[in-house]
Specification:
Blueprint: H1 3-10, H2 24-34, E1 46-51, H3 54-63, H4 69-72, E2 75-82, H5 84-92, H6 95-102, H7 111-134, E3 138-142, H8 149-156, E4 162-171, H9 202-209, H10 229-238, H11 241-257
Antiparallel strand pairs: 1-2, 2-4, 3-4
Length: 258
């Protein structure tokens, strides 16, 4: 395999970091790669907040589902879907006036624009992850930045057309990583569809989730005494309090956007 494929195949989430910082030279290299990420129409519909303040890191470690390691991460980057910058530029260029002259509607950003900006934002974030990984710098995605929108909006001074999508904690791993980890990814047959979408049946699901179940002979302890793995996933993740808060928060974000 090429070095690039090795980086992708060996990457894992890192939540414990050494005391050494991510140097300015390393940051410059990683962000240089990030800004080369593919982007819709060359518009770069995203912004990145570098969280420098220790007080702010600590606050985010609480509002993002109480994860203390966020406060200890050497480098924290928050990725924002950003249509505000382009919208402000349109205003600066007097696009509304020109549209009136042409008899065209000057529309405000819509949910479709948000979806496009979300794509740009996540592509940029993953480019950061791979660039950092190639330099021996670990990372962990924080999807919980989608929670507590009102708090994050005020804390980070986010304008209407800026939407927090994900956050990355980065740093040199605190310890040497083992070469192999247990696979937590579905086999290709369950992800790759050809021409049309395929729905799965019970036998498919048994094979799909087999790698995530406890090894043969090991006790099967599911969350909240669930009867099976599906119930456990729902109660631990999809139906959990943090997930319900995320749904509420995103609904408020969408209302604010539109």
């Amino acid at each position: 395999m090429t070095q690039t494929i090795d980086v992708i195949m060996n990457r894992r989430s890192i939540r414990a970091y050494s005391n050494g910082p991510v140097t300015e030279e390393e940051k410059t290299t990683i962000l240089g790669a990030t800004l080369r990420a593919p982007t819709a129409g060359g518009m770069m519909l995203y912004s990145i907040l570098e969280i420098v303040s220790q007080e702010l890191k600590t606050r985010l470690s609480e509002t993002c589902d109480h994860q203390p390691f966020i406060a200890k991460a050497p480098w924290v980057l928050l990725y924002l879907a950003d249509f505000q910058r382009l919208y402000d530029y349109f205003e600066f260029c007097e696009v509304p006036r020109r549209c009136r002259e042409l008899g065209k509607e000057f529309r405000k950003p819509s949910v479709g624009d948000l979806m496009l900006a979300c794509c740009d934002t996540l592509i940029a974030a993953q480019t950061t992850v791979l660039a950092a990984e190639s330099m021996g710098i670990g990372s962990c995605y924080i999807g919980d930045i989608l929670e507590n929108y009102e708090i994050h909006r005020d804390l980070l001074k986010l304008p209407p057309y800026v939407f927090p999508i994900t956050m990355l904690c980065l740093g040199h791993p605190a310890r040497e990583l083992s070469e192999k980890t247990r696979s937590t990814r579905f086999d290709r047959e369950f992800i790759l569809h050809k021409d049309t979408y395929k729905r799965f049946d019970g036998e498919d699901f048994k094979r799909m989730y087999a790698p995530l179940e406890p090894p043969a002979g090991a006790p099967r302890r599911y969350f909240m005494d669930s009867e099976n793995f599906g119930q456990s996933i729902y109660l631990r993740k999809t139906g959990a309090e943090f997930s319900l808060e995320m749904i509420r928060s995103v609904k408020v974000m969408l209302e604010n956007w539109s």
